[in-house]
Model the fold of this input.
Amino acid sequence: MTTLKIHSIESAPEESKAQLEASVNGFGMLPGLHGVLASSPQTLEAYKNIHELFTNTSFNAEELTVVWQTINVEHECHYCVPAHTGIANMMKVDDAITEALRNETPLKNSKLEALRTMTLKIVRNRGHVSQEDLNTFYAFGYEEQQVLEIILGLAQKTISNYTNHIANTPVDAPFQKFAWSKVNTTV
Done:
């Protein structure tokens, strides 16, 4: 098992301290992921900036959750799936959506399912999708902007998911009740 240091504000490099203080002020705690990322002030700053940019895309709370959780589950992130389950609850996302995403079952809302499917295609095929895939996605009311916004979300989740795999970041206390592990790895 691999681990990386999880910094506190006191132990963090000087360049990360203000970012960590902002995390505590914003979340009421220091997320473990931010503590890990603090070892590289640039990576911490990039992650937080990408997060803010992604949350300000054209996606609503349900769509943000679909993109985040689809990627988290596909990447098997033990830390991010519980965290984004709690975040989805705070954002008032229907529990049925969150559970379907966690369990890799189709979403009942066809537009959200089209978003989940496109996100999976982008992740699994490393960005190689067909014009037919795009046309199917567009038929549900999405446009080129949303394709690019999925990629932005993927950039954010790649930083967090891969970091958590290497660091084996413990799930933060508020999200431990949403613990998750991948059940079916043949999907």
Summary: Residues 79 and 171 are 5 Å apart (CA to CA). Residues 59-178 form a domain with the AhpD-like fold (CATH 1.20.1290.10). The two ends are 25 Å apart (CA to CA). The longest helix spans residues 144-167.
